[in-house]
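Give me C-alpha cells for this 111-residue protein.
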Amino acid sequence: MSVNHLNQVKTREEYKKIKEDERKKSVDAATTQKASKAKTAQKVSKAAYAKKRIRIRLIPIWLRIVLLLVLSGVFMVAGTAVGYSLLGDGNAGDVLKQSTWTHIFDLVEKK
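Here you go.
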C-alpha cells in the first residue's frame, strides 16, 4: 500500500497531461497580455517543459533496501557453504548447524 502524500504521478502519461494543462493555463493567462509577451511565455514554457524530466522508479527505494539485505544474507550463507564444503572438505549442509559454528568460534578463541 502506497501513500501518495507528495502528489507524485504514477505514469508518464499522467505527468504529461498535468504539464499540458499547466501550459494551457499559462498560455490562456498570456493572451490577456500583449501578443509578443504571449509568444515569449509560450517559448519559455516549452523550453522548461522539454528540459524537465521525471523519473518513475520501477522498484521503490524501500524495496531495494529490503532486497539488498535479503540477498546479502543469502549470499553470505551460500559463500560459507561453498567455502566450508570445497575448501574445508566438509558437508555444505553442516554450515547451518550450531555445533559447526561453536567449533569454529572455539578454534578462533583457542579454548
